[in-house]
Amino acid sequence: MPDKDEPFEAACAICGATNKLLLHRDALTNWQLVCEDCYQKLKPHVDDVGINFIKQFEGFSPTIYKDIHGIRTIGYGHVIEFNEHITPPITEQQATELLKKDLLKFEDAALNLLKVKLNQNQFDAFVSLIYNIGPENVKGTRLLELLNSHKFDLAMQHWKLFDRAGGKEVEGLKRRRLAEIELFNTPVKKG
After folding, report:
1. Which of 13, 53, 60, 155 is a plausible cystine mate for 146, CB 3.0–4.6 Å?
2. Which domain holds residue 126?
3. Does residue 14 contact residue 37 with C-beta atoms inside 8 Å?
4. Distance CA 185, CA 121 (A)
5. Annotated catalytic residue, options 9, 36, 58, 92
6. Domain check: are 98 and 37 in the same one?
7. Residue 26's pLDDT is what?
8. What CA–CA distances, in Å, run from 110 to 129, 169, 174?
9. What's the pTM?
10. Is-catalytic flag, 97?
């Protein structure tokens, strides 16, 4: 390894590009330098099943509304940023594109929180959870500790506890948590 002040040349292990290199950990926990484009292709993403799952629970709104916490939201739970300009009404297609863009951030947050590899359904369920409650509300929890220890059965008991808003149990959140647990425990169909 070169000294920290010493320049060195490196290239993407996949395509050979030399710009914007990132460290990527494969399924065997081997690290490699890859460019940003290859990283996006290699990392896990929420698939169509997961996107439809999230859409079902978020519900579609073509107009701006305030969520349970008073945050300006549109589409399938897209939080409107302070400097973001969206002209309602939006179409379901526009809302889906916003959701997919938002999910990139939550996929990265999930990968930063998780120390274990999850299958596709498990990953989709976990991203649904943190999309709904925020990754900061999972960090440091017993749920995350159990997931990262591969104690999935015990983790599901803690997953159920994220069914509250403002200190009160919310029936819609309870249904969503149970559905996420069911998705998490559903074997991935091959082929």
Report:
1. 155
2. 45-58+91-184
3. no
4. 8
5. 58
6. no
7. 63
8. 10, 25, 21
9. 0.85
10. no
